[in-house]
Amino acid sequence: MSTELRKDLKYLGKMTSPGGVYKRVTFEGEVTIDGDLDCLEIKVNGILNEKGSLKSNTGRINGFAVVNGNIEFDDININGELRVDGNMSVDKITSKGKLVVKGNVSSEELDINGELKVKGNCEAETFNLKGAFNIEETLNAGDINVNLYGPSETKEIGGDKIHIQKGGDNKLMEILSAILSPLNIYKAHLKADTIEGDDLYLEHTTAKVVRGNTVNIGDGCEIDLVEYKTDFKKTPGASVLKHVKV
Amino acid sequence: MDENLISKRELLEITGISYGALYRWKRKNLIPEEWFIRKSTFTGQETFFPRDKILDRIAKIQEMKEDLSLDDLAVIFSPSLTAKSLSKDEMVKRSIVNKSTMDFLVRLYGNIELFPFEKILYARILDKALQSGDISLEEGKLLLETLEEHYKKYEDKDCELVFLRKMGISTCFLVSSPCEYYFETGAHIVSEISIASCIEELKINLS
User: Which of B20, B26, B45 lies at the smallest CB-CB distance from A194?
Assistant: First the structure.
């Protein structure tokens, strides 16, 4: 629909709407949408319960939102929690809080402070995460930068540059302990079957196989097998059962 | 081990590409998800690929990525149909079909001014099968009918056309790819055509 025909939508309080096509959407309070919602801009302060799919250019969620369908944005900003039952396809995701996706995530840039849970695959050109993640299938990103603040797990990680380190920022730790369970914050550790990339640095990671051009294994790692092309380094505090140059 | 598969490690060795590039091409949909075949080995999970397909694809990417962006390449490799259409003279000129196949099509369909992409595709598949001498004109009709009726059901997924003959009686069908199939000994596979590679070829021809 052309931009001129779209109208603004604003709800305050507790409301239910059938959805539709709009320009600027503002929800304050507790809003339930029964159908798909297509807009250019959306702002949620409070609770959103979307029964269909959500599509917008930009969006900001302050509070809690559940989307039963898919999410398609250019840009989304989450402060609080977002749960998506379908797939999430958003160019730029910024999340402070919790993001849970039952389908796949495909994105250009992912910036997460807090927790990320994905049932399917997660793809991005840049993947920046401070907190904890659980991706049931594959994390595939060009540039992966993770600061671990909690137990994290995935099957496979692949990319150009993979940098996993234990988070050390105490200020952030305080904030994150509000999101993650306080017991878990001391279990900042990553578990994966395979990690493959060109340039790898790992800390506090347990993996069966790590493959790369340059592989640097830091403190707290337990790796069964490292296959490297050009360079392999390991601190005394790490355990690598076997390493081979291929 | 299945000799038609290639492990990821061997693939990178042969082609000289890096893990980063392989994962990037997968993200950009240059390599379909179905080609990543995960198997358990003694080191845990290992990924294998259909050997011929992946080697061919990577050679093409390496050759074309100088001139085209990864997104453009993704369009060429995707099995979805495009909106392009061609006149029948142009189809012959671009050697998508030869003159006699076109005459056959005209006899069958009547005089179509402009062929939409799906018809171009069917024509190309027919031409391939006829030119190889594997099937007769009468069987070509069967092939076209099968495509017309069923191909759309695959909705952008890769599939193969298989032509079978037993004691002079022929039949054909579509199967999703990759897929293994076996027949009784009396039946012979006359022709197997990968539709995705026909689409790819056409998209390069038309671009």
Answer: B45
